[in-house]
Amino acid sequence: MQGGPENATTTDERHSSxxxxxxxxxxxxxxxxxxxxxxxxxxxxxxxxxxxKGCDHGQCGSCTVLLDGRRxxxxxxxxxxxxxxxxxxxxxxxxPDGLSPLQAAFVAHDAFQCGYCTPGQLCSARGMLDEVSRxxxxxxxxxxxxxxxxxxxxxxxxxxxxxxRCAAYPHIVAAVRETAGARExxxxxxxxxxx
Length: 195
What we know:
By secondary structure, the chain is α+β, with helices and mostly antiparallel strands. It contains 6 helices and 5 strands. It has helices at 5-14, 38-45, 101-108, 118-133, 152-158, 169-194, and strands at 16-23, 26-33, 64-67, 70-73, 86-88.
């Protein structure tokens, strides 16, 4: 009886996996079809709808989240590959006292219009600022032997994987620049303490 109800259960079990992901600091366990993307897992199984499905091809960046601290496009990653790993979505960026400094800067600089891309922009900017603090160069970094200076050109290059159909780019750059400026004194203090 191929294709009967008994085989359907067996087939589903063979093509699904139990996955445990730490999402925004909480351990979440779900059973998923092995073909389910991280984006669909977040939105449809964990009710975290901040990451948006824009293009579903990794081209727009609306679905950007942080995976083990690095920015990724969640529509391109199968959820089974992140078993045991840590994911931060836009819902996890705020702290106990409210908006993170980056989120507050986005509001202050009106760095969004329709807001559809904003969760991905925020996660990407957070990941990008962490990359800069670790000294990672970009394609436009002029001197690889000195500390990366976060110019507007650097910000635009590093955020190029996140599209904004409303073209709020100047405001996004201003918000990221302000946040980076606020982080710099703390980064200098950490560098001094480690020397």
